[in-house]
Amino acid sequence: MASPAVAVEATVRLGEERRASASFWSDAWWRIRHDPTTMAAIAILLVMVVLAVSADVLADNFFNWSFSRQDLTQSYRKPTLDDPAFWMGADNLGRSQIVRLLYGARVSLFVGFFGMAVTMTLGVVMGVTAGYFRGKWDDFVVWLVSTLNSIPLFFLFLIIGFMFRLNAVVLPLFLGAFGWFSICNFARGQTFALRERDYVTAARTIGASNVRIMSRHIFPNVIPLLIVLAMLDVGGLILTESALSFLGFGIQPPQPSWGNMLSDAPNFYFRGSHLIYFPGILISLTVLCTYLIGDGLRDALDPRLRGSFSAGGAARRGR
Amino acid sequence: MGRFIARRLLQAIPTVFGIMLISFILLRISPADPVKLMLPSDAEITEEDKDRLRTSLGLNKPLPVQFFDFVVQSATLDFGKSFYYNRPAREMIFERIPNSIQPVLLGLLVGVVVGIPLGFVAALNRGRRPDHAIRVSSVLLNSTPDFFLGLLFILFLAIQFKWFPIGSMNVVGVDCVFCWDRAWHLIGPVLLYANGSIAFYPRLIRTEVLEVLGQDFVRTARAKGLQERVVMSGHVLRNALIPVVTNFGAILTIVFAGNVIVERVFNWPGLGRLFFDSLIQKDYPIIQATLVMSAGLLLISYIMRDITYALIDPRIKVR
Description:
The complex is a heterodimer of chains A (319) and B (319). Chain A has helices at 4-18, 24-33, 36-53, 55-63, 97-133, 135-149, 153-163, 170-177, 181-194, 198-205, 210-247, 265-268, 274-301. Chain A is an all-alpha fold and 319 residues long. Chain A is elongated and about 75 Å long. With 319 residues, chain B is mainly α. Chain B has helices at residues 2-28, 34-38, 47-57, 63-75, 89-124, 129-143, 146-160, 180-213, 216-223, 228-240, 242-246, 248-265, 271-280, 284-312, 315-318. The longest helix of chain B is centred in the middle third of the chain and has 36 residues, at 89-124. Chain B is globular, with a radius of gyration of 24 Å. The relative contact order of chain B is 0.13. Chains A and B meet through helix 6, helix 7, helix 11 and helix 13 of A and helix 1, helix 6, helix 7, helix 8 and helix 12 of B.
């Protein structure tokens, strides 16, 4: 039998052989790297981001077809390999679908990520301050959240879309302004628990200001699960944007978005089903990737939750 | 119990006030002038005529007075006449309600009947193949936009296999509510409504069943020699079904949002369709009425959820 000291030494040496020291984040990254599903989802999303960013370059130099260029002789052309511009066929006005999809990717990804940034900022600021200060401010935030939660949000977005002509910058601002409740509730709940911790009391005794305690001692401890919620939120926002654009109250033509490319779907049933498949599949694929990344991140950041499935639960449709 | 209900109703008052305030502000900041919308643009109309119309609509009163009028109107459900059809908005909404309720209820029924057993199967086979299959399909359903799924149903099930028609409520010339013709038309919308619950319930039930299975009373039931069947139906199922009742509000929000989309995809003349059409026609009274009434319904469903929760689970009242 080895003495305890030897055992400890052996453990220490074993640890040294594996990694010098594993911080929380490097440990999480190690887990993500060894999770093929999440890595595949990240890769697909990255490819989409690159394609969306280079949409202008590709349209000018490779496809030689701008997103608004029409050629009525090509209308409803089926997908063909002959001409790069018609790899995914042409729509009712003879516009190249693949180029329009590239520009649509821009809209979807921008709305998703920018909207998420708005949601996160509002949700965290409101949630952390409400949980930290409590009292009147907390009552107000709770009232605001429960009030806004009782309004059917999708109807509200439709009304906003009807009153203002929305573009890809204004739309995510609105979506974010009415989409921060679940983030706020989460941050508030976490802050309630964290503000009673000893290290917060310690920080207060040495004279740290409220802002410092919130930003340096409370916020960092909320981050891990917030990242997960953020990814789920991106997916939810992309879905909402596409639904609004589909109904004609989101991104307005001629600016192409995956949702508004499907607004005329009834005209495509018999003549051009490829005009329905491609945008729809791209929306589903993008949202699926964000949900899978969200799930993968959650497993990596909090392994206790592994196996429970949450994808899209919190974020979808603000529901 | 009476005190609990009374307190819950009192709590709803500030929420109702908030909903009214937000709806009012939203509809007043709209850049579209209702007077301009009501009058034909080509007719010769003097400023005097416009003023008279404004006075009759109460639009020249001070804003607080207008808000008070708005509250009174909402309380009596008197939203004025539709600009487009010159009929009371309330009447138009009430006659559409039966059209919408039929597919919604059937869709919920199908969703519950399919979704709950799926969640049970997933929980009892935790980590094995059925669990994974249900999990993957749930994530997939969650990341597919409803309108795209509807379009796929139409392309494959309606056009390819001719299982059901691609839209509308009855064959032209037939007008019936409970007959084969209506049943045939209902298949598509019901499937699409059911999708929301089928994506939602398995996740919920699975988590809940796993939690209940770990409880002491389940171990006791097994230890005293009860048959597994009795333990499952009497102890586990009963407790796992609590969130189905209490999450009805969440499902209702999904239905509200889905309503507009389902009725647009399948051209179903229900409430969502009325709302969509009135947005296109800028028919203010109906937009306003739909927003207020759906917010009211949602709030009532939340209150009923809390009350049923307290009835089922007495621990809640203590809080």
